[in-house]
Amino acid sequence: MEYLNFVTLRKPFSNFLIILISFLSLSACAQYPSVEWQISTAILACPEEFREHSTVLGYREKGVLEVLRSGTNNMICLADNPETDGFNVSSYHSDLEPFMKRGRELTTQGFDFKTIFDIRESEAKSGALKMPSRATLYVLSGDINDQNKEIENTYLRYVIYIPFATPESTGLPTKPAIPSEPWIMDPGTHRAHIMISPQRKK
After folding, report:
1. What are phi and psi of 140, to 5 degrees?
2. What range does the domain containing 53 cover?
3. Where are the beta strands (DSSP E) in the chain?
4. pLDDT in tens, 44-82
């Protein structure tokens, strides 16, 4: 009889635990948008002619970046990270993936920006990290409308990687004199790139 009473007492508690665990699991998953939404918004950073057949990287659970859609062209789109504030997606040529992937690995290991820069600089110079002669990155930021999940107030900027290039080898200034003027950032390093930041709409 005591055994039956014990089981009876445990049953509601067990049911409560099951409900609680299910709720927590759903809550944990809720922060990650659907795969369809991630794909549809990630490709906004990609030129239209490449969107349909681009590869898309995004998130399903635990903040792990993975392939959401395999593409057939040379463009990779990166979905918005739900763990960070705001909305930010990007797309880049696949030749940049070794550089991008290495950066993600080092970030996961807890290194700061300067350390990551120095490690990749050393690896690029030694040949351990393969850098393209040139490759383009597109970065799109904006706001997420909480009601319909549409992306608003978008802003697109352009980055063209030209490793180890300098102002002397390109004729580009090291800072823009007027809005939208191309300029070279991190000249002479593995991360040398042309920055083009269009003037924001008022």
Report:
1. -115, 125
2. 33-196
3. 55-59, 65-69, 75-78, 87-93, 135-144, 151-161, 183-185, 193-196
4. 999 999 999 999 999 988 778 999 999 999 999 999 998
